[in-house]
């Protein structure tokens, strides 16, 4: 580093230090905290009864509310099967591979294409 660079660096540091002390703003303080209560609408906590509902309640509700699943567009059995398999393979849903078709049949029964 040459002498000119050192002199410029020292001048910049001096200006920075002077600006930090002259007219310094007071430190920020944390805002007062308050507790609030929120009432959420009651939602479905389990899937509708049917063959496969126990599996859906045991495996799907880990990540999805039944209401969210029921609000999805109706899918065919093959489409539900692909969705359930995606949850298992891509998102590591703890679902045995041999239960994919049973859950897909159930989902297509409660929210399937006519």
From TrEMBL:
Entry keywords, A to Z: Signal
Keyword Transmembrane: no
Position of the signal peptide: 1-24
Top-rank lineage group of the source organism: Bacteria
UniProt xrefs under InterPro entries: Cyt_c-like_dom_sf
One example GO MF annotation: heme binding
Protein's UniProt keywords contain Signal: yes
Protein name, as recorded: Cytochrome c
Species of the source: Paraburkholderia azotifigens
